[in-house]
Each structure stands twice: as C-alpha cells, then as structure tokens.
Amino acid sequence: GHISHTLDLSQSNVSHQLKLLKSVNLVKSKRQGQSMIYSLDDQHVSTLLKQSIHHASHPIEGEK
C-alpha cells in the first residue's frame, strides 16, 4: 500500500513489478503481520542505484 500510494500506481501494478524484481533476485520480502516488507536483495544493486542517482543529479556537459 505504501509503495503504490507513494508512486501513485495501482496496487496490482506494484505487486506485479515487485514479483518481477523478486524473481530476478533484486528484492527480497518478509511478512510482518499482514504487511509484506520489501528490501534490496543485493548490496551491489544498492550501490548501483546510489551511483545512478548521484550521476543523474549532475548536469550534462554543454547544458546549463
């Protein structure tokens, strides 16, 4: 629910995407009561995401 609300996507769409990410071992899940908690499954993925976000925040040469 939190992910779908934050991204303004349907719960069905988010569930489908999380299932896909889980099937390729990019995320893992654990049940906590009635909620499912998702997290990155690999430290390398976390590093790549952080580097991508950092890179995207820098202006492209020649652009202002």
Task: Provide the fold topology.
Layout: H1 2-7, H2 11-23, E1 27-32, E2 35-40, H3 43-56
Antiparallel strand pairs: 1-2
Brief digest:
It contains three helices and two strands, in the order H-H-E-E-H. With 64 residues, the protein is an alpha+beta fold.
Notes on the protein architecture:
- This protein is of the alpha+beta class and 64 residues long.
- Helix content is 52%, strand content 19%.
- The protein has 3 helices and 2 strands.
- It has helices spanning 2-7, 11-23, 43-56, and strands spanning 27-32, 35-40.
- It has a two-stranded antiparallel sheet with strand order 1-2.
- A hairpin with a 2-residue loop joins β1 (27-32) and β2.
- The longest helix is centred in the C-terminal third of the chain and has 14 residues, at 43-56.
- It is extended, with a radius of gyration of 15 Å.
- The model has no long low-confidence stretch (mean pLDDT 89).
Annotation keywords:
extended; single chain; alpha+beta; 3 helices; two-stranded antiparallel sheet; 52% helix; 64 residues
Mean pLDDT, to the nearest integer, reads 89
State which percent range the strand residues make up. 15-25%
Physical arrangement of strands within the biggest beta sheet:
1-2
SSE string, helices as H and strands as E? HHEEH
The tally of beta strands, per DSSP, is 2
Rg, Å, rounded:
15 Å
Helix content: 40-55%
Q: Rough shape?
A: extended
Q: Helix count? A: 3
Uncertain segments are: none
End-to-end Cα distance, whole Å, is 38 Å
Describe the main β-sheet briefly: 2 strands, antiparallel
Structural class: alpha+beta
| Multimeric organization | single chain
